Amino acid sequence: MKRSFIAAVLTAGVVFSTNSATLIPMKGISLLYINGQEAESKIKPNEVKPGKTQVVLQMDKKVGRGSSQAVYTSAPYVLTFDVTGDEIKINHPVARSKQEAEAVFRTGNPEWRVSQDGKSLTYSQEKLQGREGMLPYMGMVELVAKHNEERGITFGSGEMVAAEVAAPAVATAAVASANGKSVEAKQNAQTDKKTMPAASNANNIEQLKAWYLKASKEERKEFRKWMIDQE
């Protein structure tokens, strides 16, 4: 019995390790948030799941030499990339002095050095929008949440879901209803519901959340009215 239990635990450990990747911040990188959650460690490796991944990070490094040496801390940036391998490394842009670092980040499009299993990894980035005043990034969790809400981004089971990926059948039907095609939209939604694989239900829910967050107040109101009509 004990041997069977130990074997089961070891097997579970193997499955977990094969279904995750290691995100490694190189020296001078601080990981702040991963897929909407505060990173377990800012400067040590973190485990991430395969798929689209969002990382909020900043350069936090000593630059310069001798008496001119100083710590340069950049504004936070939001990087998005696809995890398909085992090891992702993130390095800061080339900046050997404070002046060089300021010039790099002044462009708003710094060149982070991101690699996956030793090969360059494509990513998209945005500078995180801060508040007005002396402490623009105070209360980071609210800023990250606002960033994602404005873009219709949610996280289901730790995985990133963006509204831009695909419009769910129900959301499409709601748009059609808003255009005066409620009967046809309702029929299409019912048909799609019958043919939709059960395994995709969780993803559909996350997509619905993403599209709802991305919608305007009027669109949300119209969508809620459409939902009531379906009951």
Topology readout:
Elements: H1 2-18, E1 21-25, E2 29-34, E3 37-38, E4 46-48, E5 51-63, E6 70-73, E7 77-83, E8 87-91, H2 98-106, E9 113-116, E10 119-120, E11 124-127, H3 140-150, E12 153-156, E13 159-162, H4 169-178, H5 182-195, H6 201-214, H7 217-230
Parallel strand pairs: 1-8
Antiparallel strand pairs: 1-4, 2-3, 2-5, 5-6, 5-7, 7-11, 8-9, 9-10, 12-13
Largest sheet: 6 strands, antiparallel
- Runs in which pLDDT lies below 50 for 5 or more consecutive residues are 5-17, 165-178, 181-187, 191-200
The dominant shape is globular
Number of strands: 13
Run of helices and strands? HEEEEEEEEHEEEHEEHHHH
Provide the helix percentage.
Answer: 25-40%
Mean pLDDT: 79
Give the amount of beta strand, in percent: 25-35%
Structural class: alpha+beta
SS element count, helices: 7
Distance, first to last CA: 51 Å
What is the CA-atom radius of gyration, in angstroms?
A: 22 Å
Q: State the domain count.
A: 2
Can you tell me about this structure?
With 231 residues, the protein is an alpha+beta fold. It folds into 2 domains: 22-134, no CATH class; 169-230, no CATH class. Helix content is 39%, strand content 27%. It is built from 7 helices and 13 strands. Strands 2, 3, 5, 6, 7 and 11 form a 6-stranded antiparallel β-sheet that branches. A hairpin with a 2-residue loop joins β9 and β10 (119-120). The model is unreliable at 5-17, 165-178, 181-187 and 191-200 (pLDDT under 50). InterPro entries: UPF0319 (IPR018635). Residues 178-201 are annotated as: Disordered. Belongs to the UPF0319 family. Keywords: Signal.
